[in-house]
Amino acid sequence: AVRDALLALLGAGHAAVPVIETLDAVGLWERYLPWWPRVRSKPQRNSFHRFTVDRHLLEAVAEAAPLMREVGRPDLLLMGALLHDMGKGWPGDHTDVGVTLAPPEMRRLGFSDADAADVTALVRHHLLLAETATRRDLDDPATVLLVARSVGRREVLQLLRSLTEADSIATGPAMWSDWKRGLLDQLTWRVAAVLGGEDPPPGRVLSDEQRALLGSAEMQLVATPDGEVTVASPDQPGLLAAFAGVLTLHRQEIRGLEAYTEGTSALTIALTSPRFGSPPDWNAVRNDLRRSLAGTLDVADELAKRATAYPVSRSAELLAAAPKALWLDGVSDRASVVELRAPDAMGLLARVAFALTLSGLQVVNARCSTLGVEVVDAFYVTEADGSLVADRDRRATVAAALEAAARG
User: Fold this and answer.
1) pLDDT digits (tens, 9 = 90+) for 169-201
2) Rounded distance, CA 91 to CA 320, Å?
3) Nearest to 159 by CA among 185, 126, 135, 200
4) Contact at 8 Å (CB) between 42 and 54?
5) pLDDT averaged over the chain?
6) Quick one: CA dihedral 89, 99, 164, 180, positive or negative?
7) 390 CB contacts (<8 Å, ≥6 apart)?
């Protein structure tokens, strides 16, 4: 009965948040959840979180409540939202800690061992779909098979998809968008097919407009009012660098990006926001991109001038963590994957993409995301002849070049 009452309260959505905070203020909430004092008012490590750990958990539950009818076990969705970050109250990796704490907590609250195992899977993989959707090539069978093996069952995948949405919205406005929703839906659809015994669905999920753009003989740029920019062009070296550089010159911040090639065509979709509050003249952006691709606009030189005009303060440099580029093995069978993690900075993606071009590598796919003041950029690359980047010294040289580019 107590468990059912707890679930009824959690299922009330945002109306439950002030009620739970009142219970906490008078010392009753921790009698139901003895671990709660460990997360109470605890600050987050990452700046893209808008709430402390305890409030984030309540907000995640509130965002999960409207999604209960989309899953087979709404009670497990609510519990997954409540427990997914409980490990942040202890030292160590919060996911590993949460995986240890979740099973006994679920049993203490009156759930079966099977239910405890499913919620523990949600805790273990609560970052899996979001990170995979925004950093990996979803059309690569290796990506889909890796997620399918991790999740195990379609029922867990269904819960995990809803938890990812609730967690993202509760984290902050920069962590959820129609672009991210589309990537998550595409990944979930592909993984569900594999878990149902089918092969990964072939081909990408593109709108009719995007599919039409992909076959364009000349560069095309389409921008929507919400900041989604799509560029289609015949593939050529330096395309990604030119696109990112021109957006930077027009004072646009790139919050997320997906770039890939299909045959001789390239399609890049970026989620942007104005650095100073007003959208650019997209006709001017289009013209500058054409000039850059034609070689009449030196984007790298213009970015260098801009960097000189807007220098980074020494204190900011000291506070920023050092960039790190890592080669990821086992992620793809058809390309080598290098992932860069670095402090966000004006023109960073353009500089890094220029570095890849100068290294002689072909970028066949890119997934870039901005998380608060940090960026995580994953590049699927091959040598000029289409072979994988296997030589250790070659990898070290490219990684050093990316890290140097990230430092400016």
Assistant:
1) 999 887 888 888 988 999 999 999 999 998 877
2) 23
3) 126
4) yes
5) 90
6) positive
7) 336
* Cross-strand pairs, 336: 381
Contact predicate 321/212, CB 8 Å: no
Whole-number Å distance between alpha carbons of 321 and 94: 21
| CB-CB contact of 220 with 231 (8 Å) | yes
The conformational region for residue 227 under phi > 0 = left, psi -120 to 50 = alpha, else beta, is: left
Long-range CB contacts for residues 319-328, cutoff 8 Å, separation at least 24 = 322/403, 322/407, 323/402, 323/403, 323/406, 323/407, 324/403, 325/398, 325/399, 325/400, 325/402, 325/403, 325/406, 326/399, 327/389, 327/395, 327/399, 328/378
Q: Residues 43, 151: contact at Cβ < 8 Å?
A: no
User: Within 10 Å of residue 297's Cβ, how many Cβ atoms?
Assistant: 19
**What's the predicted TM-score (pTM) here?**
0.80
- Cα 157 from Cα 159, distance rounded (Å): 5
H helices present in 176-215, as ranges: 178-195, 208-214
Buried b (16+ CB within 10 A) or exposed e, 55-72: bbbbbbbbbbbebbeebe
Non-local (6+) Cβ contacts of 204 within 8 A are 138, 139, 186, 260, 262
pLDDT in tens, 22-57: 999 999 999 999 999 999 999 887 767 789 999 999
Specify burial of residue 243 (Cβ count, 10 A radius: 0-12, 13-18, 19+): buried
